[in-house]
Structures are given as structure tokens and as C-alpha cells.
Specification:
Layout (H helix, E strand, L loop, with lengths): L1 H13 L11 H124 L7 H12 L1
């Protein structure tokens, strides 16, 4: 610190002679300026250098972090594009599978419907047959009732037994 104070007061000691005739004072002023600039350089040069070096490193770090973020976003973009293409392929395959399943289900429904229709037709035919036999029985019963209800037709027990034997045999 002593050297700093000495350098600070050096211009005062160097040009303290007031009795000198000065026609121009440019030389002492230049010397004073050089000494002042030297003192400023001595006092602040390291601080200014470190400030600018730190600032340079800070800017370089920011630039590196921005470049890293840019690389990351490029990688994420590529990954997103890859996922989109995979999703499109997956959608295509799902659509194909869905079409095949729809076709198979349609065929199955058609087959089931055809079986149901056949079953209904057979069931209807059986019902028609049952109804015909019921109708035949009813007609036969009506005719038999009508025949037996008339007084002109009388069967003997033996004749009835013979008819039933013939029917059974």
C-alpha cells in the first residue's frame, strides 16, 4: 500500500516547483497524465482483467448452455418425429387389424344369422306339422263325435274292440 500512496503523490512532488517559467505546460501535463494512467493501470488492471475474463467465461457458459439446450431440443424433435412415425405405423396396423376383425365378425354374424334363420324355419316347419296333426285330430274327433252323436249309427262293444285290435296290430 505504501507504493500506491507514493505513486499517488509522485506527480505533486515532481512538478512542485512553481517558480519555473512556464511558457507551455504541455510536457508536465503529459507526464502527469502518463503517471496518472500508470497509477490507474496499476490499481485497476487486474480487477478489470478479471472482470472481463469472468464476463467472457459467463458469456461462454451461457452460450454453451444455449447450445446444449438446442442440441437437446433437436434430439427431442427427432425423438418426437420418430414417435409420430411409429404412431402412424401403429395406427395403420391397428386399422388393418380392425378391418380384419370387422370382416370376421361380419362373417360370424352372417353365419349365426343364417343358422338362426334355418333353426327358425325348422322350428316353424315343426310347429306347422304339430298344428296339422292337432287339426287332423280335432277334425277326426269332430267327425267321430258327429258320427257317434247320431242315433242311426250304433256300434257294439265287440265291433269296437275289433277295430281297436286292427288299429293296434
Amino acid at each position: 500500500m505504501n507504493i500506491r500512496y507514493l505513486l499517488l503523490f509522485l506527480p505533486i512532488f515532481a512538478f512542485a516547483n512553481v517558480e519555473q517559467e512556464a511558457t507551455t505546460d504541455i510536457v508536465p501535463r503529459v507526464i502527469n497524465f502518463v503517471i496518472f494512467a500508470g497509477i490507474l493501470y496499476y490499481l485497476f488492471a487486474n480487477k478489470v482483467k478479471t472482470y472481463f475474463k469472468d464476463r467472457e467465461l459467463e458469456i461462454a457458459d451461457k452460450l454453451n448452455s444455449i447450445q446444449d439446450k438446442l442440441r437437446e431440443s433437436k434430439n427431442e424433435k427427432e425423438l418426437a418425429i420418430k414417435k409420430i412415425s411409429e404412431a402412424k405405423e401403429s395406427a395403420k396396423s391397428i386399422l388393418e387389424v380392425a378391418k380384419k376383425e370387422a370382416s370376421l365378425m361380419s362373417d360370424k354374424i352372417k353365419n349365426d344369422l343364417a343358422k338362426s334363420v334355418d333353426h327358425l324355419q325348422k322350428s316353424h316347419a315343426e310347429r306347422v306339422e304339430i298344428e296339422r296333426s292337432k287339426m287332423n285330430k280335432e277334425v277326426v274327433l269332430e267327425v267321430v263325435d258327429e258320427i257317434f252323436s247320431k242315433d242311426g249309427f250304433k256300434l257294439k262293444g265287440e265291433d269296437l274292440v275289433n277295430i281297436i285290435k286292427k288299429r293296434v296290430a
